[in-house]
Design a protein that fits this description.
Elements (H helix, E strand, L loop, with lengths): L2 H30 L2 H10 L4 E6 L2 E4 L5 E2 L4 E10 L7 E9 L4 E8 L5 H8 L16
């Protein structure tokens, strides 16, 4: 085989590795985003309601509307693992309600989970859960 064919093959191999490396870095950057980065993006898309949990209900801070699990639609979710402590885990729920309120709820899970809140989210009907509005779908 002529030297220039070997050289050309070598250049193609380097370019392929470079493209694969860039794709991997892009994926790592996507998954390295913090919860606050995703919350900000969702807020820009209109998911501005702040929810808190009390007495087995999800309550909007602004309107004080109370929601049972059947009233909640999860339209996206994102899971996170702590950079320095893998047991520091959380899940960001992107929520719509039956009263057209849209917002986010950040829940710790794993060893630090609030079991009452986790149980509430488990009670949301499967038919009310999708990933239709996930920003990672875009």
């Amino acid at each position: 085989m002529a030297w220039y064919v070997k050289f050309f093959s070598f250049i193609v191999m380097l370019l392929n590795k470079s493209v694969q490396s860039k794709k991997l870095k892009d994926m790592e950057n996507e998954f390295a985003k913090h919860e606050k980065d995703f919350i900000k993006i969702y807020q820009e898309k209109g998911f501005t309601a702040n929810f808190h949990f009390k007495n087995d209900k999800l309550i909007t801070s602004e309107t004080k509307n109370e929601y049972a699990p059947n009233d909640i639609y999860i339209v996206a979710e994102h899971r996170y693992e702590g950079m320095s402590d893998p047991s520091d885990m959380s899940i960001l729920y992107i929520i719509k309600t039956n009263k057209d309120e849209k917002g986010t709820f950040l829940l710790g899970y794993g060893p630090s989970a609030d079991l009452e809140v986790a149980e509430f989210f488990k009670k949301i009907p499967k038919s009310n859960v999708s990933n239709d509005e996930s920003i990672t779908n875009e």
